[in-house]
Amino acid sequence: MDAVAGSDFQPAKAPKREKLKMPAKDIYHEVVKLSLIKAGWIITHDPYKLRWGKRDLYIDLGAEILAAERADQKIAVEVKSFVGLSEVNELEKALGQYILYHDILVKRDPDRQLYLAIRQDTYEEIFSEPIGTLLLENQRLRLLIFDPVSEVILTWIP
Predict the structure, then answer these.
(1) Domains of the chain from N-terminus onward
(2) What dihedral angle (degrees, nearest 10) is formed by the CA atoms of 141, 146, 148, 149?
(3) How far apart are CA 31 and CA 39, in angstroms?
(4) Using CA atoms in the order 154, 136, 80, 116, what is the torsion angle rounded to 10 degrees?
(5) pTM score
């Protein structure tokens, strides 16, 4: 019997989803990678693969530093350019991704701290406004702020 009585209408089948091997790198991926290396970090993963259930997720970078003052710290860094039409929409997507990665890292690699890498301009435009300061006050995320021109890390929060 037809999907709609008395007609030849058939509902369209949903297209099969293609399985992506790995997502595209952010436009500032290499800049952040070089900035970390300049600051003494050793890049251990590019990308840092996380598996949860049947899903593979990829954080942009994994790094370690073996300096006494940093106490053998391990980090994972998700790079975000915030170049879309809406900064708030970009923030929503980045925050959702950050929360998902953070929660999986807590279970899979609890000694590794997750950071969201953003340009200084993005920090000044979003995180100096109430919507950004709210996230920082509630310690929802850790930020790595970089300068894309000089290719250096400017600030770590917290």
Answers:
(1) 29-157 (3.40.1350.10)
(2) 160
(3) 12
(4) 70
(5) 0.84
Tokens of 3: 């999907």
| H-helix segments, the chain | 29-38, 87-108, 120-126, 130-137
Rounded CA gap, 128 and 88, in Å? Answer: 13
What is the Cα–Cα distance from 117 to 94, expressed in whole angstroms? 10
- Provide the terminal-to-terminal Cα distance of the chain, rounded to the nearest Å: 62
Percent of the chain with pLDDT over 90: 73
Inter-CA distances, 77 with 54, 130, 158, Å: 23, 24, 14
Q: In what order do the strands lie in the sheet with 74-79?
A: 42-45, 61-64, 74-79, 112-119, 143-147, 152-157
Helix 130-137 / helix 87-108 crossing angle, nearest 10 deg: 10
Please say whether the beta carbons of 63 and 73 come within 8 A. no
Mean pLDDT of the chain: 88
Place of tokens 């800049």: 31
The token duo for 32 is 């952040």
Read off the pLDDT of each residue in 141-147 and give the average, rounded to a whole number: 97
